[in-house]
User: Fold Iron(III) transport system ATP-binding protein from Pseudomonas abietaniphila.
Amino acid sequence: MNALELHALYKSFGNVRALDNVSLSIPAGSRTAIVGPSGSGKTTLLRMIAGFEFPDRGRIALQGNWLVDETRAVPAHLRNIGYVPQDGALFPHLSVASNIGFGLSGDRAFRHRRISELLEMVSLDESMGERWPHELSGGQQQRVALARALAQNPGIMLLDEPFSALDTGLRSSMRKAVSKLLSDAGITTILVTHDQAEALSFADQLAVMRQGKLVQAGSPMALYRHPVDEETAVFLGDAIILPAWVEGDIATCELGSVPVLKPRRQGAAQILLRPEQLTVVTHDAAESGPYSVGRVTDIDFTGSSCILTLELAARTTAGGEQIPHRTLNVRNPGINIPPLGSTVRLSTAGEAHVL
Assistant:
């Protein structure tokens, strides 16, 4: 069953088309991440789900009930949707406990008990309830904002880049903690982020937007390995895109013969490989192959790993076409790094994707 259904949403601001025929299904209990470059429409879409914006055309249904259609538009406060903004947006004049309990109904004893439950749920000590927002760290403020959103028992939780202001280590731990918390609670979650790695690790459904359109949606692994086009491939991570000739399920390119999975076309094409699919081994001139040899021209050492820049030699195809030399960036472990200027051999793992 789908918790949320978006049908053919359109939205313009003046002459700018923010959303252009966007349709998406959000399964109940799932975690969906919406990604895209600035101006792609992802935040507009999230605000439309929350009820802060309304579409020019289109329909939105929550758990089978229409929130927006041709005749109605349910206001934000009646949608039972939780929302955590990028900066937390805590009330500075209220204590942590009062922030979490803001809008809670019931008597004082019930409110106190519920606030204590929520503090425990987001892994904050009950004594934190007496503090003021400015006395909290960035990660603690985000936990309080999440607890405040959870207080209303929302049917869906919306997260608008909630980890972007945190440092790298805290961002990762917060993402894992929030993901587990929402999964354990069975709450359908939608995350908007500009961080592709964050989206890939957080979500079980990924939606890529560009220029107001939904370009592709599916599992993170499927989109990473089989993007719909070159722009999506590059947006989701480092990509090696090579011209190739496809016959059957084999692509012939500068790296030799590479298997491809269910190619979209035969003949001239472009293929995608991710850097982790390439392995660098020390090259012996006696065992050189015509397409798999490269020279190390740069080493970017980052500790546990490094990025090697390899220059492939120019070559002539069987048809007489001149292929100029090409540079590739390949990931390599931080040990056994080939020296600068050395010649190495490349091997590929897995299948290439035909764009």
Helices lie at 42-50, 96-100, 108-121, 138-150, 168-185, 196-202, 220-225, 230-235.
